[in-house]
Every structure is written in structure tokens, then in C-alpha cells.
Amino acid sequence: MAGTVTWTYPSVKESGDRFLDDLALFLEPLGLEQHQFHYLTLSLSEAFTNALVHGNKLDETKLVTVRLTVNDLEISADIIDQGRGGLEAVRTRPRPELLAESGRGVDFMERYCASVEFMEDADGGLTVRLRVPRRHEKKRVQ
Predict the structure, then answer these.
(1) For each of the chain's 142 residues, which pLDDT tens digit applies?
(2) If we measure between CA atoms, which residue out of 15, 42, 60 comes closest to residue 109?
(3) Which long-range contacts (CB under 8 A, 24 or more apart) does 4-8 make?
(4) Spans of all domains in the chain
(5) 117, exposed or middle or buried, with CB in 10 Å at 0-12, 13-18, 19+?
(6) What is the homologous superfamily of the domain 3-94+105-133 according to CATH?
(7) Which helix or strand (DSSP H or E) is residue 5 part of?
(8) Are 33 and 136 contacting, i.e. CB atoms less than 8 angstroms apart?
């Protein structure tokens, strides 16, 4: 399966559950290993929640757009908010305590994705781009 899907959600708490439902239906036919599915879902959920809460500040007039692209090699996801100052907030964020109950979303994304990029558009909205490989390759021992 290859292609791109785009979803747009209002910045309300209920959109988080709707996004996770849409994501699960999209990922199911890809045949990901269980840990890949879990890590990708966790990372995308964190990015989505950050866009809702920190980017758009739960302003229901603002939207969060999710664009998922799948090819034979990788899954790429863009999570785009309509907030302002998100890039600076990411750059200057304090590092959370190891067992903190919040503030660890970016750390999860960086741990479980092959690459994480943060880009700000001309209007100040933040795009978080996550990439994960389609297949988990085992390292060879020589």
C-alpha cells in the first residue's frame, strides 16, 4: 500500500480520540509489527496532542491537519497546527524529569521515530514531521 491521506480536525479535546480511531483504521492494513504500531501511534498521538494544546491552545476555530504518506520504505507524518511561536517553544522547552507525568512527548517522538523535524510556516504554525521505516531491519552480528 502506498499513498497519502490527509485529515483535518478542530482543536477540541474530542478530536484526539477521533484522530486515534482514524489512525488505527489507516495503519491496520499495513501489517506493521506490534511494537512499530505502538511506537508510531504513541509518537503521533503526542504530536497531535501538542498541536491541539500547545500550538492551537484548544481554540476551536483553529485546525490541526495530519498528512500521512506511506511508501515501500517508510511512513511519514506531518502534524500541522495554526498556532504561533511553536518552534521557539520546542527549542527552549525544559527537559522533563524521567518520571514526569507530562512534557515528555518530544522525547518519545525522538526515541521512537527514525527522524523528527520541526518547521514553522510564514504564519507561525508548526509542522512536526515524523518518519519511521516500514520494515524493522535486524542488525547482523559479524
Answers:
(1) 679 999 999 999 999 999 999 999 999 999 899 989 999 999 999 999 999 999 999 999 999 999 999 999 999 999 999 998 776 776 766 676 666 566 567 888 889 999 999 999 888 899 999 999 987 554 445 5
(2) 42
(3) 4/67, 4/68, 4/69, 4/70, 5/67, 5/68, 6/65, 6/66, 6/67, 6/68, 7/65, 7/66, 8/63, 8/64, 8/65, 8/66
(4) 3-94+105-133
(5) exposed
(6) Histidine kinase-like ATPase, C-terminal domain (3.30.565.10)
(7) strand 3-10
(8) yes
> Distance (Å, rounded) from C-alpha 56 to C-alpha 83?
5
3-state helix, strand, coil in the chain (%, to 5): 35, 25, 35
DSSP, residue by residue, 17-68:
HHHHHHHHHHHGGG---HHHHHHHHHHHHHHHHHIIIIISTT-TTSEEEEEE
**Bridge partners (DSSP) listed for residue 79:** 66, 128
